[in-house]
Design goal:
The structure holds two protein chains of two kinds.
Chain A: E1 4-13, E2 18-27, E3 32-36, H1 43-51, E4 56-65, E5 68-69, H2 75-80, E6 83-86, E7 93-97, H3 98-112, H4 120-133, H5 138-142, E8 144-145, H6 151-165, E9 169-173, H7 181-193, E10 200-205, H8 209-213, E11 218-223, E12 226-231, H9 234-242, H10 245-252
Parallel strand pairs in A: 3-10, 3-11, 6-9, 9-10
Antiparallel strand pairs in A: 1-2, 1-4, 4-5, 7-8, 11-12
Chain B: H1 19-31, H2 39-55, H3 70-73, H4 86-94, E1 105-110, E2 113-115, E3 128-132, H5 133-138, H6 142-147, H7 158-166, E4 171-175, E5 185-190, E6 198-207, E7 212-220, E8 228-237, E9 242-250, E10 256-265, E11 270-277, E12 282-291, E13 297-306, E14 311-320, E15 326-335, E16 340-349, E17 357-366, E18 372-381, E19 387-395, H8 399-406, H9 412-428, H10 434-449
Parallel strand pairs in B: 1-5, 4-6, 5-7, 6-8, 7-9, 8-10, 9-11, 10-12, 11-13, 12-14, 13-15, 14-16, 15-17, 16-18, 17-19
Antiparallel strand pairs in B: 1-2, 3-4
Classes of the chains: A alpha/beta, B alpha/beta.
Protein name (chain A): Fe-S cluster assembly ATPase SufC
Domain ABC transporter (chain A): 4-249
Family (chain A): Belongs to the ABC transporter superfamily. Ycf16 family.
Chain lengths: 253, 452
């Protein structure tokens, strides 16, 4: 069975403007898909709709995660079912320590899956191990979530959460935005460590740069609310060289 | 002195038009000749009552009480409370559980009476003395009577004046200069019934120069029982002292509670105050704080959690009489249901109070469409070289933050709880004593878990 099946997904925002115009995408376990497209093409909307953010109306189509109706679930249920969204702009949460946040999230998911809560030593051990791999200073984990973090630290914190939550399907929304090359490498290495035969990934990006570090199996070109072309990783290089002008002409024609 | 007696007692001045006002006047007539205290105090009581008589209960056309119309809130005035009986004493011994597990010295004041047999009065730390106000007034302790709110602008306030008129008992705590008391003193105020009544308590705390004290008050009573509390505390803090004051309001669900704190702070004082309000039907906490000496450092915080039709008012008058002091005020309110919070914060900087550094902020988190928050910050600055500012916000929970938490698998209610905890946590975190801070956090958590 496919891990994720998106069938003819159509989505509008509250003022009835249609953003997604029939998205079809199948992700199998072990595959890393890249979705590339210009600003405003609807890439981030796709990520938000998959994770259950308010403010979007699904007007048609369906999304199945492991065969289950993803769109019928609350955002927290989607997470417990194995979906993870790495945010383009991770939120700052004053007053909530990162450790408290991580532990609450991990235990909430375990509880929903009928698993026992992690003991404190076990939790601490996992966090320390994963944080060390991402060169995250333990002092940072005592601070409120993302408050005062640099852009790179925020994105590393996203990858840390992904490593701890071990999702079946990870959606990375513009993980490269706002990162210098060193920060990008650290984040990409973290993501690559999480590649596995059981896990699927969707990497959403505007630029090919990120795909030099997270090499995809399949590349999709997203334009005007749908996937207009699908190819291998070489497609990313072609887009980098030629831009999205060809697709604009196609739409205009 | 006797001229007041020439007025006919029965008719009363025209200001006293409501049922409650007439009942208060009747109670005064019945009790005034039996209240403790030497002659000068009797005159002050009389004068205080006259202030009430002239103005009546504070109402919405009195600027300081604009958002908390006491005349409208008090449909009647309950009879004065009787000292607790056997059952009341048993209940009083169990009161103050909000600090269970924290090592404190408990002083129990039930139905307006300090219960020595239920209080920890043994093995007082060197320099510490604790007694009852009734004893101090009965023995004519001139120092006590002269200190009781005498210098405070609060005297103009009618609710406080009523306290002065009717006060009978409370705690008198003195800490000698240089003495340090590590174990917090917990004034456990409770109303035990058996019928709704009015309780007046008055306490005086004097902290000598360079001394250190943590003082907690908790107030409680049975739910669904419309008793009325008018409590006041006069705090006199000597130069270089460090004082933490935490007031925990967990009155019963139908109670009316009016509390006045007057604080006169010397120079180089560190004062941290916290008002935690979670119980009661209608609550007013008024704080009159004056900095009389330079280089005093002041942190006043408030955390209010309301639901149903609860009403809580925090009104602060901070008077910088002398310059070079720093003050920070941080008040947070969480409002569910049809509840309403009021924050009035007035910072006065007198002409001589140059180099004053004051920052005041109040924030309300509205959890329902029908909750209401009123903020009224006021700066009255008469000096020209000061840094003073204020900020106020009111809003709902941030949906983007909630989504972020939910996207990590945290259910909606738990996500809301986490965000609300972090919101009030900022105010609770100003409490220096770890055990008390954790007790307040736990009380906030219990409130949140009981939501919906």
């Amino acid at each position: 069975m496919s891990l994720l099946e998106i069938k003819n997904l159509q989505v509008s925002v509250e003022d009835d403007r249609q953003i997604l115009r029939g998205v079809n995408l199948t992700v199998n376990p072990g595959e890393v898909h890249a979705i590339m497209g210009p600003n405003g093409s609807g890439k981030s909307t796709l990520a938000h709709v998959l994770s259950g953010k308010d403010g979007y109306a699904v007007t048609g189509g369906e999304v199945l995660l492991d065969g289950a109706d993803l769109l019928a679930m609350e955002p927290d249920e989607r997470a417990a079912a194995g979906l993870f969204l790495a945010f383009q702009y991770p939120m700052e949460i004053p007053g909530v320590a990162t450790m408290t946040f991580l532990r609450t999230a991990m235990n909430a998911q375990r509880k929903k899956r009928g698993e026992a809560e992690l003991s404190t030593p076990e939790f601490m051990k996992r966090v320390r191990e994963e944080a060390a791999k991402l060169s995250i200073d333990p002092e940072m984990l005592r601070r409120p979530v993302n408050v005062g973090f640099s852009g790179g630290e925020k994105k590393r914190n996203e990858v840390l959460q992904m490593a701890l939550l071990q999702p079946k399907l990870a959606v990375l929304d513009e993980t490269d935005s706002g990162l210098d090359i060193d920060a990008l490498k650290i984040a990409a290495e973290g993501v690559n460590r999480l590649r596995s035969p059981e896990r699927g990934m969707i990497v959403i990006t505007h630029y090919q740069r990120l795909l030099d570090h997270i090499v995809p199996d399949i590349v999709h070109v997203f334009f005007n609310g749908r996937i207009v072309r699908t190819g291998g990783k070489e497609l990313a290089h072609e887009l980098e060289a030629k831009g999205y002008a060809d697709y604009e002409q196609e739409v205009a024609a | 002195m006797q001229t007041t007696m020439s007025k006919p007692q029965s008719s009363g001045p025209e200001a006293l038009t409501s049922e409650a006002e007439r009942q208060i006047a009747a109670a005064w007539a019945g009790v005034k000749d039996h209240l403790p205290g030497p002659a000068p105090l009797t005159a002050r009581r009389e004068a205080a009552f006259r202030r009430f008589e002239a103005a009546g209960l504070p109402h919405r056309r009195v600027e300081e009480w604009k958002y908390t119309d006491l005349r409208a809130l008090m449909r009647d005035a309950k009879p004065l409370a009787q000292p607790p009986g056997e059952i009341g004493t048993v209940r009083a011994r169990a009161a103050g559980a909000v600090l269970a597990g924290v090592d404190v010295r408990r002083i129990v004041i039930a139905d307006g009476v300090l219960l020595k047999e239920a209080s920890d009065l043994a093995d007082l730390e060197p320099g510490l003395s604790i007694g009852s106000l009734a004893d101090a007034l009965g023995s004519g302790d001139a120092e006590v009577t002269s200190r009781l709110g005498a210098q405070s602008p609060a005297e103009k306030d009618v609710a406080f004046a009523l306290n002065t008129a009717f006060m009978g008992d409370g705690a008198v705590i003195r800490l000698a200069p240089g003495a340090t008391v590590a174990r917090p003193i917990h004034l456990v105020f409770c109303f035990t019934g058996p019928v709704p009544a009015t309780v007046f308590t008055r306490s005086l705390v004097e902290v000598g120069a360079g001394a250190t004290l943590t003082l907690v008050e908790s107030h409680e009573g049975p739910d669904a029982f419309d008793y009325q509390v008018n409590t006041a505390l006069d705090l006199v803090v000597g130069d270089g002292a460090t004082v933490d004051h935490v007031k925990i309001g967990t009155e019963g669900s139908a109670a009316l509670h009016v509390a006045t704190l007057t604080a006169a702070l010397g120079r180089d004082v560190t004062f941290r105050g916290m008002v935690f309000a979670i119980g009661g039907a209608a609550v007013r906490n008024q704080l009159f704080v004056r900095c009389d000496g330079a280089h005093t450092n002041l942190m006043l915080a408030g955390a209010t959690l309301l639901k149903g039709r609860q009403h809580a008012d925090a009104t602060l008058v901070l008077d910088h009489a002398i310059g070079g002091c720093q003050s920070r005020e941080l008040f947070k309110g969480v409002l569910d249901g049809d509840s309403r919070s009021v924050f009035q914060g007035k910072i006065v900087v007198r002409p001589d109070a140059q180099k004053t550094d004051g920052k005041m902020s109040s924030h309300a988190l509205l959890l329902s469409e029908t909750a209401e928050a009123d903020h009224k910050p006021e700066l009255e600055i008469f000096a020209d070289d000061v840094v003073c500012g204020h900020g106020a916000t009111a809003g709902a929970l941030d949906e983007d933050l909630k989504f972020y938490l939910m996207a990590r698998g945290i259910p909606r209610k738990e996500a809301e709880t986490l965000l609300i905890q972090s919101f009030v946590g900022e105010a609770i975190d100003t409490v220096a004593h770890e055990g008390i801070r954790e007790a307040l956090s736990a009380a906030a958590t219990r409130w949140l878990e009981a939501r919906q």
